[in-house]
Design goal:
This protein is of the alpha/beta class and 538 residues long. The protein contains 18 helices and 16 strands. Helices cover 27% and strands 12% of the residues. The strands form 3 sheets. An 8-stranded mixed beta sheet has the order 13-6-7-8-9-11-10-15. Strands 4-5-3-2-1-12 form a 6-stranded mixed beta sheet. It is found in: Nucleus.
Length: 538
């Protein structure tokens, strides 16, 4: 079957789907599935805009709300992961995945699904070492820290994915797996993006968590986005035993969704002709979720996943064939994901702008999913933790109020506003992506639909390299890199605010300093879009 893969969408759904229609008209190519590698921006209304960690000038409604409201419907089944420019409050409603609009499915914090027998996995967000070992504790309304930490990858999701034993056909991550640039045209990459050089040469560009997953899962295809440049690589994996067949991964990073940019790719994937056209649950993944349910954590405390180090009674949470069979029996061998999309927030109305406040919402899709498989509803657990903390903290709050009264001043709870005052202009999660030189293709293949050059994925991969042991990234990388990451981000300490936890839970029923030399990676909110205005006028 034909699978279309898109880079950072940034809410431009109309443009993405129009490009697919153009492919069909010019080349008679109609994809059966569309995958998006993050920065999808499923923004439903003004409140969702407030939950995106971008400066006010970049908070645009875009076109997702039309698909959310039902005014439009995605012409092709769309599956996406989260990035670092998202309406985090919306996606947080679906920690295990779910429909954000008819025919548009979010994979959750991490997830695996099947379509026509093709096994598709993904992990949302970007890697930051200082949040990696925390639980999913954030909830709206967010403060200046949690609005960013909400989309940071957590070790629990990586741990779950590492329990998988069955082969993965396609895997998606937003940021690149660390070291992947050593398996493609690195010289050309640094020619276009010279400010990547320092991190590439020190082997610190990208996510060590994603690299760990790449080595473990060894998927046939791995797609990423985030750095706004197209890049292809081919990694031949080492085998663990003489009997193991050699495996290789074709990696492709996509550009952002803008005119005249290579943001879309079409590939042919072997599938099961006898399989239906519905998106399906993956039985092994459901079994893993059930097996790891006791590990769910919704606190800010750093914690370590079970390891075979003599400190844990159990460290292997991979599942048996029996456990997988039990899942199948629970579902009567019907793995079809129910089309149970439900509106959980008011939809944006251009004729009637509203000042909507972000609220913590439990999505009925998540409620149903957790009830069906006996899983912990993370958002419900967060709310319980908030209530318990509120009761325990009443006495302390009274003492603080007395101290404030004696001084005659107090720091007001900092609600997240629509202007830029609520956010520092420096965001440790952003990367300066200046456009150096032209838009020369790093993968040697064309994705821009033109009559003379139809998309060809097979020419993207020409280098085959064996990954040396010295490049292996251990799970300890996250800990060892903490100081480095904090230095890069310009944050000497992690400020924790107490505010913004007073709003009640709403339950819905029913249905990152440049110098004069080589540019360095700069992490700024505005910088990631530095070239967009220019691009749009070309």
């Amino acid at each position: 079957m034909k699978v279309a893969v898109a880079g950072c969408c940034h809410g431009a759904l109309d443009k993405m789907y129009e490009t697919l229609e153009l492919l069909q008209r010019r080349h008679n190519v109609r994809p059966d599935l569309l995958l998006c590698c993050g920065d999808f921006q499923a923004v439903r209304n003004e409140a969702d805009l407030r939950c995106m960690a971008v400066p006010a000038k970049y908070r645009h409604m875009q076109t997702f709300y039309r698909y959310y409201s039902g005014e439009k419907k995605a012409p092709v089944l769309t599956v996406f992961i989260g990035g670092n420019h998202e309406a985090s409050n919306h996606l947080q409603e679906l920690p295990y995945g779910g429909w954000v609009a008819p025919n548009i499915y979010y994979l959750g914090y991490a997830g695996v699904v099947r379509f026509r027998g093709v096994r598709i996995g993904g992990i949302s967000g970007i890697f930051k070492s200082h949040d990696y070992r925390k639980g999913h504790f954030e909830c709206p309304p967010y403060n200046q820290q949690t609005i960013r930490s909400a989309y940071h990858v957590r070790n629990i999701e990586v741990f779950k994915l590492k329990q998988l034993k069955r082969p993965i056909d396609i895997f998606m991550s937003h940021d690149w797996p660390r070291s992947i640039y050593h398996y493609g045209n690195k010289k050309q990459l640094l020619k276009m993006k010279s400010f990547f050089r320092q991190e590439v040469e020190s082997n610190t560009l990208g996510s060590p968590a994603a690299s760990e997953l790449l080595q473990h899962l060894k998927p046939t295809y791995w797609f990423s986005a985030h750095l706004h440049v197209k890049f292809a690589a081919f990694m031949q994996h080492q085998t663990n035993s003489k009997d193991e067949l050699p495996k290789a991964t074709k990696f492709l990073a996509l550009d952002k969704c803008l005119p005249h940019r290579d943001f879309l790719q079409i590939i042919d994937v072997d599938h099961d002709p006898s399989a239906g056209d519905s998106l399906e649950y993956d039985a092994e993944w459901i079994a893993v979720l059930k097996a790891t349910n006791s590990l769910v954590n919704v606190t800010q405390a750093s914690w370590t996943m079970p390891e075979n180090n003599g400190l844990h009674a159990k460290w292997d949470y991979s599942v048996t064939e029996k456990a997988i069979k039990e899942v199948l029996e629970e579902l009567n061998h019907d793995l079809k994901i129910p089309c149970n999309f439900t509106l959980t927030a008011a939809c944006y109305d251009p004729s009637k702008p509203q000042k909507v406040q972000p609220v913590h919402t439990i999505n009925p899709q998540t409620t149903e999913f957790c009830a069906q498989f006996g899983l912990t509803d993370i958002n419900n657990r967060i709310q319980q933790a908030k209530e318990e903390a509120s009761v325990q903290g009443e006495h302390e709050e009274e003492e603080e109020e007395e101290e404030v009264d004696s001084t005659g001043s107090a720091e007001e709870p900092s609600e997240y506003n629509t202007d830029n005052s609520g956010l520092s202009s420096i965001n440790p999660d952003e990367i300066m992506l200046d456009e150096e030189g032209g838009d020369e293709d790093l993968s040697t293949c064309s994705v821009d639909p033109s009559p003379d050059h139809p998309p060809d994925f097979s020419t993207s991969f020409s280098d085959i390299r064996i990954m040396p042991d010295s490049m292996a990234v251990s799970s300890d990388d996250a800990t060892d890199s903490t100081n480095e990451e904090l230095e890069k981000s310009g944050a000497s300490k992690h400020v924790e605010e107490k505010s913004l936890n007073e709003r009640p839970l709403k339950r819905i029923g029913g249905n990152e300093n440049g110098n004069s030399g080589i540019k360095k990676i700069k992490r700024r909110n505005q910088a990631i879009y530095a070239a967009e205005d220019k691009d749009k006028t070309e």
